Amino acid sequence: MSEIAVVAISVAKPGYEEQLRQALEGIVGPTRKEQGVLQYDLHRDLQEPRRFVFVERWESQEALAAHAKSAHIAAYKQAVTDWVEHSEIRVVSKIV
Predict the structure, then answer these.
(1) Three-class DSSP category at 15
(2) Which domains occur in the chain, in start order?
(3) Reduced to 3 states, what is the DSSP secondary structure of residue 30?
(4) What range(s) does the ABM domain occupy (predicted)?
(5) Could you give the CA distance from residue 95 to residue 63 in angstroms, rounded to a whole number?
(6) 67 exposed, middle or buried (CB, 10 Å; 0-12, 13-18, 19+)?
(7) Is 21:77 a contact under the CB 8 Å cutoff?
(8) Which of 92, 87, 40 is nearest to 67 (CA)?
(9) pLDDT score recorded for residue 1
(10) Residue 19 near residue 83, CB atoms below 8 Å
């Protein structure tokens, strides 16, 4: 299967921006060591600082699926349940 990209957005509840930022930063290192990851970069929206955006590239859908089942992602999801107002994940493929 061909390379895929992901845009993952998490919006912190008011007052939880720094807790969410720290939790997101905590998954960057382990994820960058996973098999099949090509890019895993965390960004913060300049106009809406509660909004955090991951820009990701994966070798395959299977690599992304393994990432979603990883222990550090499971721990992250459990930790941030009360801190996230909204999250959205878009999986896309490059056209040009």
Answers:
(1) coil
(2) 4-92 (3.30.70.100)
(3) helix
(4) 4-92
(5) 20
(6) buried
(7) no
(8) 40
(9) 56
(10) yes
